[in-house]
Amino acid sequence: MSTVIQALKNEIQRLAKKQIKAFAAPIKKDVARLKRIAAALKGNIAQLQKQSAVLLDAEARRSRMGPAMSEDELAKLQLRGAAVRKMRKKMKLTQQEFAKLAGTSPVSVGKWEKAGRKQIQLRGESKKSLAKLIGVGAQEAKLLLERLAEQKPVAKKPAPKTVKVKKAEPKKAKKAKKPAKSGKSKTKAAKKK
């Protein structure tokens, strides 16, 4: 009789474990998914804290430097090509990335840098945007680029299709060319005579 009781107990335990596993499996999946989400959110929080620290640092530097340039100071601003290159290298940016921040083309940045020690002639908007970039560090420049990418998704305009129209010309009968004689042509033979 004790073996029957023991067999019943084992069977009840086995069925109970099976029921618990069936009930707990979806919950385990949900818990694993929630843990992944929590880890991703912690990473995002850490990244945002780092970015805010960089921006607060930059803002503190700017406040120490004084207010933004007035119109008179902006008019007096003179930049040389070497200064633009030094500013770009300090930010650890390519010419294309620097051009995005400055609101110009990479070709313009290349021309400015090529000027070397010569003073470069800047127009209104270019001058204002370069004045804003003075004193910007590498981390802040990367954040500004990310913001620009988020604000303005670049949509390329499709190039207009050009169609070449050929005028119909009447076909002319071609004269058959005589094969050249082996060796010398007629003109050379006529000269020798």
Structure commentary:
The chain is mostly helical and 193 residues long. The protein has two domains: 66 residues; 79 residues, 434 Repressor (Amino-terminal Domain). It has eight helices and no strands. It is elongated.
* Rg (C-alpha, Å): 38 Å
Helix content: 55-70%
Please trace the helix and strand order, writing H or E for each element. HHHHHHHH
The number of distinct helices, counting runs of at least 4 residues, comes to 8
Query: How many β-strands, per DSSP?
Result: 0
- Global morphology: elongated
The CATH architecture category of the largest domain equals Orthogonal Bundle
CATH class of the largest domain: Mainly Alpha
Strand content is under 5%
- Any low-confidence stretches, pLDDT <50, length ≥5? none
Mean pLDDT: 76
Query: What structural class do the secondary elements suggest?
Result: mainly alpha
CATH topology of the largest domain: 434 Repressor (Amino-terminal Domain)
Give the helix/strand layout.
Elements lengths: L1 H64 L5 H6 L4 H11 L3 H8 L3 H9 L9 H10 L4 H14 L34 H7 L1
Helix pairs in contact: 3-5, 4-5
